[in-house]
Amino acid sequence: MKFIADLHVHTVASGHAYSTVLEIAQATAAKNELKMIALTDHGTKMPGGPHSYHFANLVAIPERVSGIRILKGIEANLIDLKGTLDLEKQYLERLDVVAAGLHAFCCPVGSSKDNTTMIVNAIKSGSVDIIVHPGNPEFLIDEAAVVEAATKFDVALEINNCSLTAARLGSEAHCHHIIQLAKVAKTKLIVGSDSHFAETVGDFGAAAEILSDHGIPEEQVLNTSIERLLSHLNRRKNRNHLVTF
Ligand SMILES: [Zn+2]
Ligand SMILES: [Zn+2]
Q1: Closest ligand relative to 14 C-alpha
Q2: In a domain, 50, yes or no
Q3: Domain that holds residue 10
Q4: Ligand nearest to the CA of 194
Q5: CATH number for the domain including 229?
Q6: How many CB atoms lie within 10 A of CB 187?
Q7: Going by DSSP bridges, is the β-strand pair 189-192/36-42 parallel, antiparallel, or unpaired?
Q8: Residue 47: is it exposed, middle or buried by C-beta count within 10 angstroms (0-12/13-18/19+)?
Q9: Over pLDDT 90: what percentage of the chain?
């Protein structure tokens, strides 16, 4: 499977990531594999993370840096059972990519039922493009219910490479199960590096391997085609602009 974009990348603004936008763009260009990345720094509730105006002012970053198309995004935290995101609507609508998920320090670690409710409500909200690392064993969910909601409301589920290599240990079995369910339901999938350092942008090896174990076709994975990716992002109605390449 050949990937053309990484929509899960952190910069120094996240507070616990270690590269600047320029370093990330230069490192990505040097690898000569990806055409596009999304900056998805953590939402405002992450300790040490950015405040709302960080996201409001992303317009300061050019559309292309070192030849790489830079999408402006967020990895928002779900902060309550309603699936509320930790960024105001007027700033969310300016972003090209809204990814969202459950994180320690940012939302109550609930029961599987509570975690599922938070994610399903975020999916239904119409504000989210991608649910990140749904296979995280720290926040158990009803995987069938989340896959069903993602399919129905046309939200992509992420297979997070970092979950299979460096963080959220124990994710693998959950990722396998989610992929199995998604294969049957034809749910949109996306692979994210969750890079916190410039040189790991576009590292998809472990995630790509389990997609291939399940025989997931390229057409089901958003970041294998610019057209597929843009068409997914542009389906979100509460954005005030079209996302282009
Ligand atoms: Zn995350
Ligand atoms: Zn992340």
Answers
A1: 2
A2: yes
A3: 5-233
A4: 2
A5: 3.20.20.140
A6: 22
A7: unpaired
A8: exposed
A9: 89
Q: Which residues of 50-63 are buried (b: 16+ CB within 10 A; e: fewer)?
A: beeebbeebeebee
The residue type of 4 is I
Find residue 72's DSSP bridge partners: 39
Single-letter amino acid, residue 68: I
Report yes or no on 245 lying in a domain.
Answer: no
Q: What is the pTM of this model?
A: 0.96
Structural domain includes residue 133:
yes
CB 50 within 8 A of CB 11: no
State pLDDT tens for residues 56-96.
999 999 999 999 999 999 999 999 999 999 999 999 999 99
43: CA distance to ligand 1 center in Å?
10
Å from CA of 133 to ligand 2 middle: 9
Number of domains in the chain: 1
- pLDDT lower than 70: segments of the chain: none
Q: How close is the Cα of 101 to the center of ligand 1, in Å?
A: 6
Cα of 102 vs centre of ligand 1, distance in Å, is 7
Assigned domain for 244 exists: no
